[in-house]
Design goal:
This protein is mainly alpha-helical. 64% of the residues lie in helices and 7% in strands. A hairpin with a 7-residue loop joins strand 1 and strand 2.
């Protein structure tokens, strides 16, 4: 007999894989890897973030994020700003070219936008119910065992 957990797990996996495929396709069309594109999106939303913070948000290692950052700096999409108070602390920001790349990736004519906006065809109350349910699931999964 199949576990009642299997359809839940399968649904989450399928949605996750589909969104990753859409994001990867979009990143490749822009000449970027999925990791590089994710870094640009995160820096767009949180300028001044450092490598460790990015790695935590992306659930990646510092070294893999550092490699991608180095490539993005080489492409002229990201710059590093060293703290005057603590030279070890390096903040990352998008350059104008990086900002433009992110903007173009999410404008209404982009393939990514056209794919993801379809989510909004689901009625708002259903989306809110789904978000509430996801939060309940996350709370339970992250709860400490007693």
């Amino acid at each position: 007999m199949e576990s009642p957990l299997y359809p839940i797990y399968t649904s989450f996996r399928e949605v996750n894989q589909t969104i990753k495929r859409i994001l990867r396709t979009n990143a490749e069309a822009m000449g970027l890897s999925h990791v590089q594109f994710t870094i640009l999106r995160l820096l767009s939303n949180c300028p001044g973030t450092n490598v460790t913070e990015l790695a935590e948000r992306m659930q990646q290692t510092n070294s893999s994020v550092s490699v991608a950052i180095e490539q993005l700096v080489g492409m002229g999409l990201v710059n590093r700003i060293r703290s005057k108070e603590d030279r070890r602390n390096v903040k990352l920001n998008l350059t104008d070219r990086g900002t433009e790349k992110v903007r173009l990736s999410m404008n209404e004519d982009s393939h990514l936008y056209k794919q993801l906006v379809r989510i909004l065809e689901v009625p708002p109350q259903e989306i809110q119910n789904m978000l509430d349910t996801h939060q309940k699931i996350l709370d339970r999964l992250n709860a400490k065992e007693e």
